[in-house]
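Figure 2 data, in text form.
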Amino acid sequence: MSLWPPLAQQQKRRLVRFWRENPTTLHCEAIDQEDYQPFRSNSMCVVSCIYLDCFQGCAITSVDVLILLEILLELDLSRKEDKNRLRRNLEKYKPITVYKADQSMNPAFYQIMSYKNPKPRNIEKDIKIFPWSLVPTMLINIFQKPRGD
């Protein structure tokens, strides 16, 4: 986090843009909050790399992981069944659930809730987070799974 720009350090969040060049090539780059454009296509998205004190490191929310997988796998996740299938596949990475009511996790919950666009969550409910360091592994493993699994 020490290499992040001052605003990102203050907010404890770094935005990362991912884009798919072709079915097998994915690129990413860190962008500043002021460079964020509220635009998502079928080949590009922006997710949040969030520094959480209680986690002692950076994390990504399950909402952002699903957005990223939707781009990478060229999926339409408008069907609840498809989202739930991907969520089940992600459970093997043992996400940590940040509960609103849990005093030890409460600051992390409100930190994530406070972020403006792009929002790393959909609604105000318990949030699952994964270590940011697992993002490459999750993407590779999910990408290699048969689509019908």
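Caption note: The first strand starts at residue 13 and ends at 22.
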